[in-house]
């Protein structure tokens, strides 16, 4: 068993809702509401959920790009939520992020080389010549040419820009990379290339990923374990195979049934969810999923279920498996 | 050693800039406490803005020749804006070299008063000392005063050349002061948000409603009229529009992922503001600056026209004022600066339009 790289304990991220002239605090958007999980070294943990379920907020709070409201994030055993500015700057060398939209994740006024080299500059790595060499090496590593360093973002295609985004994240030799929907803004044909690149880099460099996506097919392709998120909470966490073959939580079932299968004649059990995702400002009492669950019981309306271990180290939060 | 320090402040460029500031500060101290007048007060601004322009304007354009060529091609597509630029360059050359070639614009010579421009002849009644009578005499324009003279016999061409310098100085310096303050206010306000934003923007609102004219009259009343104060007052009160526009642009930039990416790389606030936000709002700032220069030039001319200008410098507004008093005997005195003002304002507006089209992010492919 490999070592735990990250342990997240009861992490919460609330965004205040304010009103009026004096910005009275009236409510909270509970984007992430008490989430716990681990990321092992060299593994890919997939995080899947509908848009607005808090997966991006979770990724950002995990790297302290946004301050978590409460909870702990242990990186190699020490709590990063208590770290000061200096320690955080060191942490930035260990943990990096790949962003969703390659269009907006690169500064339009900076050359590709400057964007990638910025991390090296910030951390004062090497002389200018060494930095240029490192940038050229990174560009080749992600499948671009060293000549691309002099280009501007608008001169590259979406897939190329995403490669640059990956190269930038790798510049500081991180151990952990949070990939926030890294392929959802790309064409399907390019998606596969980028996914393969991300997986190759993991093997070469020994990276651990938190891979955030809303597309189960993409998640299934890259992940070792998969966490399913609904309305700010994790409802199920299991190894990829088990999750795909024996989903336990009704929400996971519904998500899986929505994955398109390239065979029009295959008969499948279709679970469609009625209604909309409830507001994260006032999540429903009891089980958060009870308003849409096809197998809702009386207990679900009253008592929130807890994320419990089941056989095979998988976790599920549902009264049916109580 | 040098390398360590220069890395600390973010590059050799910043080091040179800080060095320039230190030298200027030293000269100010020397000026105040030891010897007087090493530099004219305006000299500080010239050195300061020359340093800003070279280090943060010309140098990046030079190192980024591909981008420069791209902007130049887009700007030069506008024929009118090139025409405007040519006129501004002509004006700047006249203001710089002209005073060496023309006569002293303040030299009074009543024997030569109200001489018309070359090619014109006017009739004037002149008091003849010998016969003790008024005689009507034809006065032709001479090459000695190509554009004629005013009612005190001052050479109009020399006055106009001097006025060009004044107008450009006021227009450029006041605008630079204004956009420098406005850009920093706007970006800081947008980046930090919260109460910083609140405080800075309410301050901007107050400045916006502040009657700059009354402030100017007040300052002139206390310190006496001087070009320096006019530039300072216009600059220190004219930044509000820039601040608001820059803020709104920086607000939308702040949510873009590259800002988050930079923070996730460990960038400091200063780095994000100066390396990411300001370069990205700079194109709008350049457009605002170009388009606000004519307003400032007109404001200075208006002040001089109503007699609140610096009486020791010959500005277009002052010539206009002198000209309108003798409009019936010497029409050319008022017409010439009027035409020049009109053309200058037009030239800056054309150039501004061209630059706006070149820099407009929406038209970038």
Question: Helices, strands, pairings?
Answer:
The complex is a heterodimer of chains A (about 325) and B (about 375).
Chain A: E1 4-19, E2 24-40, E3 44-48, H1 55-62, E4 70-75, E5 78-79, H2 85-94, E6 95-98, H3 112-122, H4 128-141, H5 158-170, E7 176-180, H6 188-205, E8 208-213, H7 216-222, E9 225-230, E10 233-239, H8 240-245, H9 250-257, H10 298-302, E11 308-309, E12 315-316
Parallel strand pairs in A: 3-8, 3-9, 6-7, 7-8
Antiparallel strand pairs in A: 1-2, 1-4, 4-5, 9-10, 10-12, 11-12
Chain B: H1 2-8, H2 12-33, H3 41-63, H4 65-76, H5 79-101, E1 121-128, E2 133-140, H6 156-192, H7 194-209, H8 212-223, H9 227-237, H10 240-254, H11 257-264, H12 269-305, H13 316-325, H14 331-359
Antiparallel strand pairs in B: 1-2
Q: Which structural traits does this protein have?
A:
heterodimer, A: 322 residues, alpha/beta, Rossmann fold, 8-stranded mixed sheet, 4-stranded antiparallel sheet, 12 strands, 31% helix, B: 365 residues, mainly alpha, MetI-like fold, 2 domains, two-stranded antiparallel sheet, 14 helices
How many helical elements of chain A?
10
Query: How many distinct folded domains of chain B?
Result: 2
Largest interface: A-B, 32 and 24 residues
Strand % of chain A is 15-25%
CATH fold title of chain A = Rossmann fold
